Amino acid sequence: MTGTVYGLGVGPGDPELITVKALKRLRAAPVVAYPAPEQGASFARAIVARWLVPVQIELAIRVPMESARFPAEVVYDRAADEIMGHAAAGRDVAVLCQGDPFFYGSFMYLFARLGERAPVEIVPGVSSLTACAAAARWPLAARDDALIVLPASLADDELERRIAAADSVALIKLGRHFARVRDMLGRLGLAADARYIERATTASQRVLPLDAVDAASVPYFSMILLHRRGSAGA
Ligand SMILES: C[S@@+](CC[C@H](N)C(=O)[O-])C[C@H]1O[C@@H](n2cnc3c(N)ncnc32)[C@H](O)[C@@H]1O
To answer: Radius of gyration (Cα) for the chain, nearest Å?
Structure first.
């Protein structure tokens, strides 16, 4: 019988923020796959390291971070074939997804390749969006608020247009875009309505006002939450 592929949300960083369901599926799977940078350790794997079982076969999917679309597609094609090989041999495969699999998660690229070839079950996870709100002790949205999630890689005019239409904003994928976004929020008079959150729920979590952040050391795992005064209880 064909094995099942599980897209497991493993949460934002704290190993205890994995769901009971994802933990059960993880520990029962003979094969565990996870995204990883070209060199170095996988964050998703690190989150669940304490829960792994020694006999599990591990499959690191090494994705070039700044890749053109073509090489990344080759990586996902190959990973999907490898995962499919295990599933065809009757082995369940747990694919680890930092946060939630379908909230900007790379699992969706595998799902697009495997969804019709094998049984796939998606177990949602605690996303960085809710984790950062909790870390900042700042409700995300309330009542009739419109909440929008914006990748910081969007151009300034696009960001400005979309921010103007929202009460509550999450700016993700900050990294090298931080200084540009901070300056833009300053120009719009919104800097005081924003909080910076780095590595939420991990031991190195930081929550700061924008003017206290060193732009040169902003990691990929960071976001800005913004509430116009008067929204979300702000
Ligand atoms: C490709 S998205 C993946 C999101 C993930 N699937 C989720 O559900 O949270 C990566 C972005 O999520 C945000 N992020 C993920 N984990 C985070 C954390 N622990 N603290 C702050 N931001 C985080 C950052 O903005 C990062 O650039």
So the answer is: 19
Query: How close is the Cα of 90 to the center of ligand 1, in Å?
Result: 33
Give residue 54 CA to ligand 1 midpoint distance, Å: 28
Residue whose structure tokens are 């792994």: 52
Q: Does 230 score more than 80 pLDDT?
A: no
Residues lining ligand 1, Cβ inside 6 A: 12-13, 98-100, 103-105, 127-128, 131-132, 172-174, 197, 199-201, 220-223
pLDDT digits (tens, 9 = 90+) for 92-144: 999 999 999 999 999 999 999 999 999 999 999 999 999 999 999 999 999 99
Out of 153, 154, 221, give the residue to mutate to test ligand 1, the one with the largest number of ligand atoms within 8 Å of its CB: 221
4 and 39 Cβ atoms separated by less than 8 Å: no
- DSSP letter for each residue of 94-143: EEEESB-TTSS-THHHHHHHHTTTS-EEEE----HHHHHHHHHT-----T
**Residue nearest ligand 1's atom 10 by CA:** 173
Q: Residue 223's pLDDT is what?
A: 98
- Concatenate the DSSP letters of all residues of 18-40 into one string: S-HHHHHHHHH-SEEEEEE-SSS
- Biggest CA pair distance of the chain: 60
Mean pLDDT throughout 203-213? Answer: 98
Q: pTM (2 decimals)? A: 0.94
Res 38 pLDDT > 90 = no
